[in-house]
Specification:
With about 300 residues, this protein is an alpha/beta fold. It is built from ten helices and twelve strands. The longest helix has 22 residues. The N and C termini lie far apart (about 45 Å). The structure holds pantoate. Pantoate binds next to α4. Belongs to the ketopantoate reductase family. Pathway: Cofactor biosynthesis; (R)-pantothenate biosynthesis; (R)-pantoate from 3-methyl-2-oxobutanoate: step 2/2. Keywords: NADP, Oxidoreductase, Pantothenate biosynthesis. It holds the Pfam family ApbA.
Length: about 300
C-alpha cells in the first residue's frame, strides 16, 4: 500500500522506518533539505545499538498533492492548523490518521469529516537524532481509533507490523483523554524541574507535586475512574523512568513546547466548568515563561 506521512519529526521518522519495510512510504517534510536527505539516503533507525536503513520517498509538504490512500499526520499540535489549511492537498486521500497530543485540535479535524479520520496515541520512545535518523528508545504501541467514518485503509495495517505493535480501540475520546492525563502531569513537571520521568516518583516532594497537579487535572477531564488514571500515570512514569519527557527535550533544545495543547487545554476545560485550577495555572505559566526565555532569548 502507498502511505503518506506528513511531518519529519521523531514520530514521523519512526513510522516511516517501520511502515517503510512493508509499504511504499512517502514522507512530506516542512524543509526541502530534509526531503532531499531522506529521498537520497533513506530513514536510519537505531535500535539496541544497531542501525538499519529503509528507503522512502520524500518531498516538501508545501505545494504537494498527496495521492496516497492512507496518510498519517504527525506534526505537533501547534503546526496542525497550517497543515489543515492546505485542505486541497488531501483531496485524493481516503483515510487520515492524526497523532497529536492533547485534545484541543479535534475541532480542526471536522474539515475532513467526508473522509475516514482516525486519531491515535503513540506510546513509543523516539528521539530524532538528525534529519534522517531516529532512535527507537522504548518499544510501546500505537493505539488507533476511528473518529469520523470507518477505519478505512488503516485496516490494512496489521497488528505487530514489522515489530511495531498497533492496537485498535473503539472509543477515540478515551484513548486521547488517558494520554492527556499522563502528558499533563509528567511533561510539564519534568520540564520545569529538569529531571527524568523517574525522579517524579523517587523524590517525595516531586511526587507530592505530581499528585496535586493530577488532582486538579482529573476534576475537569472526562475520566471513568480517577484511581485507575492515577495508577496509569504512575505506571507510565515508572516504565519511562530513564527517559526525558518530550517537553523536557523541547525546552532543553530551545523549541516550542506543547504546553498549550496539554495543560492549556485542561485550563480551558476548567474555565468552561467554572473550576479554578491554581496548581495547573502556576505550572502552565512557569513553562510558558521558560519557553519564552529559551525560544526568544
Ligand atoms: O511526551 C512524552 O514524553 C511521553 O508521552 C511520556 C509518556 C510522558 C514519557 O516521557
Amino acid at each position: 500500500m502507498n502511505i503518506g506521512i506528513v511531518g519529519g519529526g521523531a514520530v514521523g521518522l519512526l513510522l516511516a522506518a517501520y511502515l517503510g519495510r512493508r509499504h511504499e512510504v512517502t514522507v512530506y517534510t516542512r524543509r526541502p533539505s530534509q526531503a532531499r536527505e531522506l529521498a537520497e539516503h533513506g530513514v536510519a533507525l537505531k535500535t539496541d545499538g544497531k542501525t538499519s536503513v529503509v528507503a522512502v520517498r520524500a518531498q516538501p509538504f508545501a505545494g504537494a498533492e498527496l495521492d496516497e490512500p492512507l496518510v498519517f499526520v504527525t506534526v505537533k499540535q501547534y503546526d496542525l492548523a497550517a497543515v489543515c489549511a492546505q485542505i486541497d492537498a488531501f483531496r485524493r486521500v481516503r483515510t487520515l490518521v492524526f497523532l497529536q497530543n492533547g485534545m484541543g485540535h479535534l475541532e480542526q479535524l471536522s474539515v475532513f469529516a467526508d473522509k475516514n479520520v482516525l486519531v491515535g496515541v503513540v506510546e513509543h520512545g523516539a528521539l530524532k537524532l538528525d534529519d534522517r535518523t531516529v532512535a527507537h528508545t522504548g518499544v510501546g504501541k500505537l493505539t488507533l481509533a476511528s473518529c469520523y467514518g470507518s477505519l478505512g485503509d488503516a485496516r490494512e495495517l496489521r497488528d505487530g507490523e514489522s515489530g511495531f505493535p498497533i492496537e485498535w480501540a473503539d472509543d477515540w475520546e478515551r484513548i486521547l483523554v488517558n494520554k492527556l492525563v499522563v502528558n499533563a502531569v509528567i511533561n510539564p513537571l519534568t520540564a520545569l524541574l529538569q529531571v527524568k520521568n523517574g525522579a517524579l516518583l523517587e523524590m517525595a516532594p516531586y511526587r507530592d507535586m505530581m499528585r496535586q497537579l493530577f488532582d486538579e487535572v482529573q476534576k475537569v477531564l472526562p475520566l471513568d475512574d480517577a484511581n485507575r488514571a492515577w495508577e496509569r500515570v504512575v505506571h507510565i512514569c515508572r516504565k519511562t523512568a530513564d527517559n526525558y519527557s518530550s517537553m523536557y527535550m523541547d525546552l532543553a533544545n530551545g523549541r516550542r513546547t506543547e504546553i498549550d495543547a496539554i495543560l492549556g487545554y485542561v485550563l480551558k476545560q476548567g474555565e468552561a466548568r467554572g473550576v479554578t485550577l491554581p496548581v495547573a495555572r502556576f505550572v502552565f505559566s512557569a513553562v510558558k515563561g521558560k519557553e519564552r526565555g529559551m525560544v526568544d532569548g
